[in-house]
Amino acid sequence: MVKGNKIGKGSTAEVFSIAHDKVAKVFYEHIPVSQIKHEMNISTKISSLGLNIPAVHGEGDIEGKKAIIYEKIDGFPLTKLLEKGLLSAIRSVNTMVSLQIYIHSKEAGDFPPLKFSLENRIKRAESLSGREKERVIDYLQTLPDGKQVCHGDYHPDNILISMHGKFVIDWADSAAGSPLADLARSLLILQYGGFPEKVTNRMYFAERLKRRMIAQYYLYLYKKYSPFKRESFQQWLLPVAAGRLSEKLPPKEIEELLSFVRRQLNSWD
């Protein structure tokens, strides 16, 4: 099978259009085969739950590299609407919240446990000291396990808007766990994710304020339509923020998350 036009790129793979109705997610050579098979199995399970995701057409070999073949969705990421203006941003947040609540209404069955994958992320967080990791992991073990479907990386870039509906993509990190853990990750990404590396202080603080307002509105809407105790949500912010530090993030985001984690830990002393 031959690559077509590249239409996307991520931390584990590149995405190519290979037909009018199919794309290939071509994994980098260092990605283990077991991880690729896990993603395909998870995507198949998610599809069986009735969630609106691109259909999985199986595995492939693209110029010597392992790939998963997916249905091609002609659309654009929700991020474009979120950045368009205030009214568009409000509508986008409503769309995102309703989709996430629907995902969380599904029981995960034999999906991998969220707390296990989160613990492994925390262990890989190079910004944290060994003692800091130990304290966060000990705290994580006291939190509820949960059994609902959690996307694991739910943010506007992973929601595609097309004339045929709204599709949620990139389920590689999905797990069985507490919806509030999944919500915590979404809120942290909305508030801190993807800050440009070179901005003036004025632009940075303006963007920071905008992000904070969007995140707070998101939390308000989710709580309105799927009520929970605020402290039950807040308890997930520390371990989820610590786990996110294992990822390749812009310096500003690392700075914000690290500051948040250390403030939380210091408040225990």
From TrEMBL:
Pfam families: APH. Gene3D superfamilies: 3.90.1200.10. InterPro entries: Aminoglycoside_PTrfase, Kinase-like_dom_sf. One of its GO terms (molecular function) is transferase activity. Keywords: Transferase. The keyword Transferase applies. Residues 7-189 form the Aminoglycoside phosphotransferase domain. This is Phosphotransferase family enzyme.
